[in-house]
Amino acid sequence: MATTISSAFDSGNIRVVGQDGDRFDLEIVKDASSDFYQWFHFRLAGAGGREVTLRIVNCADSAYPNGWPGYKARLSVDRETWVQVPDCSYGDGVLTIRLTPETDCVWLAYFAPYSMERHHDLIATFSSLPDVAYRSLGQSLDGQDIDCLTIGEGPLTAWIYARQHPGESMAEWWMEGALEKLADPDDPVARVLRKEVTFHLVPNMNPDGSRRGHLRTNAAGINLNREWHEPSAEKSPEVLCVRNAMDAARPDFAMDIHGDEAIPANFLAGFEGIPSLTQRQSDLFKLFSDTLERLSPDFQSRLGYEIPAPGQANMSMSTTQLAERFGCLSTTLEMPFKDNDNLPDPVCGWSPERSKFLAHACLHALHAILPDLKKA
Ligand code: ZN
After folding, report:
1. What is the pLDDT of residue 376?
2. Stretch 355-372: mean pLDDT
3. What integer pLDDT is reported at residue 1 of this predicted model?
4. How far apart are CA 94 and CA 88, in angstroms?
5. C-alpha 224 to ligand 1 mean position (Å)
6. Which of 27, 180, 334, 353 is catalytic?
7. How far is the CA of 175 from the centre of ligand 1 (A)?
8. By the 8 A CB rule, do 109 and 348 touch?
9. Which of 48, 236, 272, 376 is the most buried (most CB within 10 A)?
10. Same fold, 4-109 and 116-373
11. pLDDT at 250 over 80
């Protein structure tokens, strides 16, 4: 039987540019109307029991070339469990994946995918709970709803939103973990949080990019996390509808959930360079970060992004825009595509399960800083 590769499905992305039996040369396809690419997701069929060599040949010009050294592709035989491909190496702009599939159909991806079908399952599960309210905040350019789940009845307001960058699928695994914990009727931390805080959760800010297999942009090739200063109905309705909803329910606390291609660690990014930065905001950010570091062995604060100079913040990004607009504690969480090198898992690397545990830890940290957050 001939070996085939296909990606014409939810969040699929790859192009076959050469095949010699069980050796394939592949290219990752650019996001529509954009030069970004790094996300791949495809099925390898008909090669059960035979060694296959897959070469992704256009890595050098991808969005984050530093994402490839030390990276291992993810593999699944059942589309539930995803493991690292041990024989995966990078050199001269080519990621080479060698494997002998156990079965005739296996799936490979940049990270464990979180499909739009699973997103609908998530919304179905949580919107049906008696203490969770559902609303659509608006629609994407492809006509998909921007789903928002509200839970809790406290005086504080929290907005947690994920997947502005659709290829960062760990972000929606994190959201699934956060929802499972927040909705648990018996969890003591969740019970206190629901009493003190009203949570608005947007599990997927970019459903079009997710379904299309994009790395970083929506259907029009727009990077949503560069639109927060002036979102528009034409280019970025996803951001416009969420920001409008935030204007109507102003956040005291906000988290924007992402994945980082290059850095093998979990870290937070903040809002240091905003024009009207207050000491209270800076203190709360440090307190949240320190608390999370104490609570989770998967979190650290040593590795991260360069901190902008005073007044030099990029106000088109959500975390800076919300910190400036609302004077709130606003954070970006970055999780690795590779692994957390401080606590590595050679089999799975960073994973959906670990993303969920990190979500639990973030909610514990929020619980721990509630007394400080309540002080004006
Ligand atoms: Zn991102």
Report:
1. 75
2. 98
3. 76
4. 10
5. 10
6. 334
7. 14
8. no
9. 236
10. no
11. yes
Q: From the CA of 263, how far away is ligand 1's center (Å)? A: 12
What does the pLDDT look like over 224-239, one tens digit per residue? 999 999 999 999 999 9
Give me ligand 1 centre to Cα 167, in Å. Answer: 8
SS3 41: strand
Cα 80 to ligand 1 centre (Å): 24
Q: Encode burial over 65-80: b for 16+ CB neighbours within 10 A, e otherwise.
A: eebbeebbbbbbbeee
The rounded distance, in Å, linking the Cα atoms of 153 and 351 is 32
Alpha-carbon distance of 118 to 168, in angstroms, equals 15
Q: What is the rounded CA–CA span in Å between residue 253 and residue 178?
A: 15
For residues 275 and 262, what is the distance between their CA atoms, to the nearest angstrom? 29
Instruction: Extract the tokens encoding 33.
Output: 């109307």
How far separated are the first and last CA of the chain, in Å rounded?
Answer: 68
Q: What is the pLDDT of residues 30-76, one digit of tens each?
A: 999 999 999 999 999 999 999 999 999 999 999 999 999 999 999 99
Domain boundaries, the chain: 4-109, 116-373
All residues at 6 or more sequence positions from 45 whose CB lies less than 8 Å from its CB, including other chains: 3, 4, 5, 6, 104, 105
**DSSP-assigned letter for residue 66:** G
The token pair that represents 159 in the structure block: 């907005």
> Which pairing describes strands 88-91 and 83-84: parallel, antiparallel, or unpaired?
unpaired
Alpha carbon of 287 to ligand 1 centroid (Å): 23
Q: Under CATH, domain 116-373 is a member of which superfamily?
A: Zn peptidases (3.40.630.10)
Instruction: Examine the residue annotation and report whether 353 is marked as an active-site residue of this protein.
Output: no
